[in-house]
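Researcher: Dear colleague, please comment on this protein.
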Amino acid sequence: SEFVRIFRNEVFFMEPKDYIVKKIEGEYATLKDKETGEELFIALALLPAETDVGVHLHYEMLEYTVVKDEK
């Protein structure tokens, strides 16, 4: 039903996720979900300024942040 589809989308947008930037083409980046392997095509304007290929991103509460590599 339409309600279920909207509800699932809302949950998707609120659920914390971790991504790795796979490629950047023009003003868009392709992110790969580290858990599921699904890819997401997103505007660079929505990502942190230091976003680059290979960077790890964390998504939570409608915001992307760079995950610094642990030593």
User: Anything to note?
Assistant: The longest strand covers residues 17-25. The mean pLDDT is 85. The CA atoms of residues 25 and 44 lie 9 Å apart.
